[in-house]
UniProtKB/TrEMBL annotation:
<dbReference type="InterPro" id="IPR006148">
    <property type="entry name" value="Glc/Gal-6P_isomerase"/>
</dbReference>
<dbReference type="InterPro" id="IPR039104">
    <property type="entry name" value="6PGL"/>
</dbReference>
<comment type="similarity">
    <text>Belongs to the glucosamine/galactosamine-6-phosphate isomerase family. 6-phosphogluconolactonase subfamily.</text>
</comment>
<dbReference type="InterPro" id="IPR037171">
    <property type="entry name" value="NagB/RpiA_transferase-like"/>
</dbReference>
<feature type="domain" description="Glucosamine/galactosamine-6-phosphate isomerase">
    <location>
        <begin position="11"/>
        <end position="219"/>
    </location>
</feature>
<dbReference type="InterPro" id="IPR005900">
    <property type="entry name" value="6-phosphogluconolactonase_DevB"/>
</dbReference>
<dbReference type="Pfam" id="PF01182">
    <property type="entry name" value="Glucosamine_iso"/>
</dbReference>
<comment type="function">
    <text>Hydrolysis of 6-phosphogluconolactone to 6-phosphogluconate.</text>
</comment>
<protein>
    <recommendedName>
        <fullName>6-phosphogluconolactonase</fullName>
        <ecNumber>3.1.1.31</ecNumber>
    </recommendedName>
</protein>
<comment type="pathway">
    <text>Carbohydrate degradation; pentose phosphate pathway; D-ribulose 5-phosphate from D-glucose 6-phosphate (oxidative stage): step 2/3.</text>
</comment>
<keyword id="KW-0378">Hydrolase</keyword>
Amino acid sequence: MPNPILVPHADKGQLALAGGSRIINVLSTAVAEQGLAHLSVTGGTMGIAVLANIAENPLRSTVDWSKVHFWWSDERFVTTEHEDRNEQQAKDALLEALDLPAENLHIIGASDVFETAEAAAGAYAHELARFAPHGEASPRFSLTLLGMGPDGHIASLFPGRTEILEAQQVTLAIQDSPKPPPTRVTLTLPVINFSERIWFLIAGSDKAEATARLLKASQLAETELTAEILQETPAAGARGMLETLVLATQDAISS
């Protein structure tokens, strides 16, 4: 897996515009070459801004969206259509404008559908397996988009906890998340990394310290990423099979 590469952007607007165009290009190419594309999307202000840009981007029509499957790297275990759900935010920003086949949306179960986050996590692992190549636990994502918190977390894999080190499970139920809401479902790091490309979408001066740690770790080989590094900055462990880009605004990389 190649080491992450920093791609600076002047501000959030430029990142949303450039990120949206980049995503359209990757999806168009993947559909043309492979017949379909698996895209793992993220929530957060920047992630949703990029999705909203795609909705307005004139290049959007170059993608056969009926061949694009949408997944989520994590989800808040709250009720369907709750404003905190990454799924609902993505629908509002982009998905409802695409007229997608229902089977192309692979949604992590809500709290009014499953009794527990553990049950929702198990169902999502089963859904991932349905689309997995032989011998794998999940589809190979054409592109995974990741936000990063000011603490360095990705998906719902937070610093100072053991979930980032999980190597056997496909999905996890997260209890007592340090960021509300406290109950969540997340992909594990090996599943996130089963991606041709991973792109971080990072904006804001509050991310500068964590971004500095991520970029420092990006200089290390994958085998040099110790448990201590991963537990301090979980984002350091995310690396695509072909490419990892850190798409960041200038204030997020200025310390």
